[in-house]
Design a protein that fits this description.
binds zinc ion; 277 residues; 11 strands; Urease, subunit C, domain 1; TIM Barrel; 34% helix
Length: 277
């Protein structure tokens, strides 16, 4: 058989929950066409002896939004088997962005995710204003893995409300405008919307980032444009009341990130480490 690629001798974990087996994988025209003992020689042979062969992992929580500019292979997640990554989590994105605001958005990512501002400003083309333009720019970088992006609440709020976005509630007109911006972002390719209510996430001047204290009504209005488009809402630092309100309002899908859960998992993992003392 004329396989384009043969991956030989790996332990196959196929993602269905079935028992791992040692098997070769044959690929033709980008599709797996054979699993088992493959005969013949493929155009490209990959020796996977001693390795695990699996479907690619999907990393649903990344902040590769800037790094992808200087590292389109998105390391190290791609080294770990991730073939699809979701950008734009936790409300912090670089679009939509008025040209005058790029320093502010880059500075926000620096304080929230500890990614140096100068690297963000020099490592991305900053050729966009809307989220679709950001996705187009990312596509031109030819990422080494599949990427999808959420449009961030903090960026949307600053785009619509300016300086008022940091500490004030939105008017009805501004809420409607934010919902329209989010709807356009999704129509131009965003996989959904993310928001951040974790008060210790600050701007460079020490104030919590835009959206941290936004009324539930604002999130509900946005949720009502996200859900009908089959898109996702993602939230970090949101309490159960807010999460329930958003979910009930529109019936859409919700990704929630919680620090308490992360910490508990981390301590559990540490407790499992062998003691080499
Ligand atoms: Zn995050």
């Amino acid at each position: 058989m004329g396989y384009d690629i043969a991956i030989r001798g790996g332990t196959l974990v196929d993602g269905t929950g079935s028992t791992p087996v040692r098997a070769d994988v044959g690929i033709e025209n980008g599709l797996i066409t054979a699993i088992g003992d493959l005969e013949g020689t493929a155009r490209r042979e990959i020796d996977a002896d001693g390795l695990t062969v699996t479907p690619g992992f999907v990393d649903i929580h990344t902040h590769l939004d800037a790094q992808i500019g200087w590292d389109p292979d998105c390391t190290p997640v791609s080294w770990h088997g991730v073939t699809t990554a979701l950008l734009g989590n936790c409300g912090v994105t670089f679009a939509p962005c008025h040209p005058r605001d790029k320093e502010l958005l880059a500075g926000m990512m620096e304080t929230v995710e500890d990614i140096p501002r100068h690297a963000i400003l020099s490592g991305l083309p900053w050729s966009w204003e809307d989220y679709g333009g950001y996705l187009d720019a990312i596509e031109r970088l030819r990422p080494g893995i599949n990427v999808a992006g959420l449009v961030g609440h903090s960026a949307v709020r600053f785009y619509v409300m300016g300086e008022r976005a940091v500490e004030e509630q939105a008017s009805a007109v501004e809420r409607a405008e934010m919902a329209a911006v989010v709807a356009r972002s999704i129509d131009r390719g965003a996989a959904g919307f993310s928001t951040n209510r974790f008060a210790p996430h600050k701007l460079r001047d020490g104030r919590s980032i835009p959206g941290t204290f936004a009324d539930a009504a604002e999130l509900v209005e946005i949720a009502k444009v996200v859900a009908p488009r089959g898109a996702l809402m993602q939230a970090v630092g949101a309490d159960n009341t807010i999460l329930r309100t958003i979910a009930d309002a529109a019936g859409g899908r919700l990704l929630a990130a919680g620090f308490a859960v992360f910490l508990r998992a981390a301590f559990f993992a540490m407790a499992q480490l062998p003691d080499h003392g």
